[in-house]
Amino acid sequence: MTLSSTVIREVTSLENMGLDELREVWRSHWGPPPPLRSPGLLRLTIAWRLQARELGGLDRNIRRALASQSASPADGLNLGEGAVIRRQWQGQLIEVVVRSEGFEWKGEIWKSLSAIARNATGVRRNGPAFFGLRGDGK
């Protein structure tokens, strides 16, 4: 299957559009636009939808497989319940215990190590990297 010249022109025209113009394109095809703030992501989404409308999109088996996928567990939960993760940061010991429902820190359960790292340091950080589970944790 090949794309019609109309769809090719529509997709090509998206390249130089700003966010407001892209939202208007979405509105004209599908109604209220999603709350995306990234022109690049909205551009890709519109291009995919235009092409999928003509070519048929994902087949039933792929849609079913995607729907059956569950969210992956937060990094660090694989260490097992009761594991202790420690990090020394600016003279403060940050100690986290892995629990079945998340990570315990200062008597509270947190969903992710990134949330703990952000709360402990005051800036957004990759929690697994911060705690030395992957990459550089500066």
Q: Which features would summarize this protein structure in a list?
A:
single chain, 2 domains, four-stranded antiparallel β-sheet, 138 residues, alpha+beta, 4 strands, 6 helices
What does this protein structure show overall?
By secondary structure, the chain is of the alpha+beta class. The chain has two domains: 5-68; 77-130. It contains six helices and four strands, in the order ααααββββαα. The chain has helices spanning 5-13, 19-30, 39-55, 60-68, 113-121, 127-130, and strands spanning 84-89, 92-99, 102-105, 108-110. A four-stranded antiparallel beta sheet has the order 1-2-3-4, covered by helices on one side. Strand 1 and strand 2 form a beta hairpin. Helix 2 (19-30) runs parallel beside helix 3. It is elongated.
Number of helices: 6
Average of the residue pLDDT scores: 92
Portion of residues within helices: 40-55%
Q: What would you call the structural class?
A: alpha+beta
Please describe the biggest sheet, giving its number of strands, its sense, and whether it closes into a barrel.
4 strands, antiparallel
Query: What's the number of domains?
Result: 2
Q: Kindly, what is the distance between the CA atoms of the first and last residues, rounded to a whole number of angstroms?
A: 50 Å
| Strand and helix order | HHHHEEEEHH
Strand content: 15-25%
Low-confidence stretches: none
- Spatial order of strands in the largest sheet: 1-2-3-4
Number of strands: 4
- Over the alpha carbons, how many angstroms does the gyration radius reach? 22 Å
* Overall morphology: elongated
